[in-house]
């Protein structure tokens, strides 16, 4: 029986792991700090538009507390800027078949990269033989330790998943993907298995370019106008680099049901995405370097400057380092800083 080891059981990882566990699928959640300790002591609470459940899912704080099994599937769900450290930490952990040590995780186990951006697959491929890219569409938020708010209904989320890199054993990969599709569908998600997930991840990247604007502006109006300027610039950069991106129409159709974000009783009216959550919680870091910063990187590679995305990357990083909160910046201040 497959066990999903969720490395980084925060908003997305906690939502996926909690939904799977609630349906009887075996999981192991990995989380640090107060969030991890709360789940160890009290379980994980999932708050959805139509239900609230507390799941007593097994939880650990790191690989030192885990005995990996040959039937495990690693699911990486950290922020992208945390991915390299997390993968490095797990790559050399021993894997056992009953009581026999059969090798390292990097050689024996598949890893699913359920992160924003398009960099984590290459990071994982430096360590792991079998890497599966995951494009995540899931409106999940973690504000309080031990609690994840999942606002998607009727579907909880949509995931596009495919092998990253050339498969040595296509039959084994197909079997794994079908197993993931079956398990995650039973947990209330839609899992699509395209031949190549990366065009989907680049399309999601374009959407995620608005995360920094939402994080900086909070409830202040005007974020969408500025976000659209960053997206327009990004499309030009990706076209110049000849990077394939899933079309807007295809993307919209794929996540139509999951895009129905509904209110969850007893939660704040305004809840933001991953970058908003980083500033709201005062984490001191933010993943913008791998979102807007990815567009800046591609632009520099192909000689197509991306000044809006470059500047917002620096502004978001400064906000995280200096403890700014969502809404500390007005739209006029941000527009001036971006030269718009």
Automatic annotation (TrEMBL):
Positions in coiled-coil regions: none
Ketopantoate reductase N-terminal domain: residues covered: 5-152
InterPro entries documented for this protein: 6-PGluconate_DH-like_C_sf, 6PGD_dom2, KPA_reductase, KPR_N, NAD(P)-bd_dom_sf
Pfam family, one: ApbA
Lineage: Bacteria, Bacillati, Actinomycetota, Actinomycetes, Propionibacteriales
Every Ketopantoate reductase C-terminal domain range: 198-318
Name of the protein described by the UniProt record: 2-dehydropantoate 2-reductase
Lineage top rank: taxon: Bacteria
Naturally occurring in which organism (per UniProt): Microlunatus endophyticus
């Amino acid at each position: 029986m497959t066990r999903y080891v969720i490395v980084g059981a925060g908003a997305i990882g906690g939502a996926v792991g909690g939904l799977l566990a609630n349906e009887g699928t075996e999981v192991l959640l990995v989380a640090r700090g107060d969030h991890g300790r709360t789940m160890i002591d009290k379980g994980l609470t999932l708050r959805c538009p139509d239900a609230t459940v507390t799941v007593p899912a097994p939880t650990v704080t790191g690989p030192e507390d885990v005995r990996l099994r040959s039937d495990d599937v690693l699911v990486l769900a950290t922020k992208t800027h945390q991915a390299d450290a997390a993968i490095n930490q797990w790559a050399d952990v021993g894997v056992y078949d009953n009581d026999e040590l059969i090798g390292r995780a990097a050689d024996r186990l598949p890893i699913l990269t359920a992160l924003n951006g398009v960099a984590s697959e290459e990071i994982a491929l430096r360590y792991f033989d079998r890497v599966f890219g995951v494009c995540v569409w899931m409106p999940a938020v973690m504000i309080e330790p031990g609690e994840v708010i999942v606002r998607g209904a009727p579907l909880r989320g949509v995931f596009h998943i495919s092998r990253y890199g050339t498969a040595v054993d296509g039959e084994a990969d197909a079997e794994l993907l079908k197993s993931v599709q079956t398990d995650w569908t039973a947990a209330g998600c839609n899992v699509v298995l395209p031949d190549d997930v990366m065009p989907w991840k680049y399309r999601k990247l374009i959407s995620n370019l608005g995360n920094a604007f939402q994080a900086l502006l909070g409830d202040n109006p005007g974020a969408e106008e500025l976000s659209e300027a960053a997206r327009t610039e990004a499309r030009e950069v990706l076209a110049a680099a000849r990077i394939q991106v899933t079309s807007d129409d295809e993307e919209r159709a794929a996540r139509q049901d999951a895009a129905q974000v509904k209110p969850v009783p007893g939660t704040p009216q305004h809840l933001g995405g991953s970058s908003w959550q980083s500033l709201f919680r005062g984490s001191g870091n933010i993943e913008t370097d791998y979102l807007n910063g990815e567009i800046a990187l591609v632009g520099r590679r192909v000689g197509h400057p991306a000044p809006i995305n470059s500047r917002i990357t620096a502004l978001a990083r400064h906000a995280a380092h200096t403890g700014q909160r969502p809404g500390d910046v007005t739209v006029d201040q941000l527009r001036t800083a971006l030269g718009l």
